[in-house]
From TrEMBL:
SUPFAM superfamilies: Ribosomal protein S5 domain 2-like (SSF54211). The gene is rnpA. It catalyses: Endonucleolytic cleavage of RNA, removing 5'-extranucleotides from tRNA precursor. GO terms for molecular function: 3'-tRNA processing endoribonuclease activity; ribonuclease P activity; tRNA binding. The keyword Nucleotide-binding does not apply. Keywords: Endonuclease, Hydrolase, Nuclease, RNA-binding, tRNA processing. It comes from Dactylococcopsis salina (strain PCC 8305) (Myxobactron salinum). Its EC number is 3.1.26.5. Belongs to the RnpA family. This is Ribonuclease P protein component. GO terms for cellular component: ribonuclease P complex. One of its GO terms (biological process) is tRNA 5'-leader removal. RNaseP catalyzes the removal of the 5'-leader sequence from pre-tRNA to produce the mature 5'-terminus. It can also cleave other RNA substrates such as 4.5S RNA. The protein component plays an auxiliary but essential role in vivo by binding to the 5'-leader sequence and broadening the substrate specificity of the ribozyme. It holds the Pfam family Ribonuclease_P.
Length: 120
């Protein structure tokens, strides 16, 4: 099961805006780009996109497995995200050997560093 349609970045221009204007934070396996669209009457839901290139793996099976794992993690964290947030997760080539727990730990660390989550 994927993310709800309202919470997905789907168009090239949405990704492009986050790439150009967003804050960047990187870890061992992932890079996060974050764009906070702050307006007083903004009620748009947080949106997330995942970018994974052929450099990670030539096999679609491997790339799709990584995307499914990241989507599952983000689905659990989505209610904690503020309104108007746009997030792009870029997967690095080292992530091919990464397990679910590693993705979970790194995503939480990067989101805390970007001050989206405030930790436990």
């Amino acid at each position: 099961m994927g993310l709800p349609k309202a919470n997905r970045l789907r168009h090239r221009n949405q990704f492009k805006a986050v790439y150009q204007k967003g804050e960047r934070c990187s870890g061992k396996y992932l890079v996060l780009l974050l764009l906070r669209e702050v307006s007083p009457n903004d009620v748009s839901p947080p949106q997330v996109g995942i970018s994974i290139s052929l450099k990670v793996s030539k096999k679609a099976v491997v790339r799709n497995r990584i995307k499914r794992q990241i989507r599952a993690i983000l689905q659990g964290l989505l209610p904690q995200f503020p309104q108007g947030l746009k997030l792009v997760v870029i997967v690095k080539p080292q992530a091919q050997v990464c397990q679910y727990e590693d993705f979970l730990r790194e995503l939480r660390e990067l989101l805390i560093k970007l001050e989206v989550l405030y930790g436990y």
